[in-house]
Amino acid sequence: MNESNAQVNTQEAKLALLLIEQQKMKASNVARMPIWLNVIFSVLVTWLVYFELINRELRLSDLSLPILLLGLLVILGLWSKHLERKGLKVKWFPNKKITYVAFIIGVCLGMFGDEIGMYIYEELSPWGSYIVPLTTTILLVYFGHRFPLSEVVTADVLNEKR
After folding, report:
1. Kindly report the CA angle at 77 between 137 and 32, in degrees rounded to 5?
2. pTM surpassing 0.85?
């Protein structure tokens, strides 16, 4: 009797873990920005990081940088409010290894963006001035779409309707 009880409890525990994992995947799917908003966000982030490089090519005004930063903050604020209405609590600081890595990469790109832009402009001109920001934007769109809550969204969840 005890063995069958233990076996049922083990099966129930496995089923409960599976259900928890499915809920995490569904939450990641809900948290995923629409592709058009993800593209806008990624372009703004790329322009913010490579502002000096892009400014050399397009001769933007000094007011462009605060406008880019404000646009990013507005998008993040509105999206977090949207997610809170859907029942997901937004964490603004890293809580997993992958988000620590992404946060550190973002800080480094922000701090050394001018130097990166100078190097690209001087060493990789003329094609590097366009290819590097475009590649960065594409990678941001991909990772933002595929890993919205630092969790990979599986194919079966991607195919489900919201």
Report:
1. 55
2. no
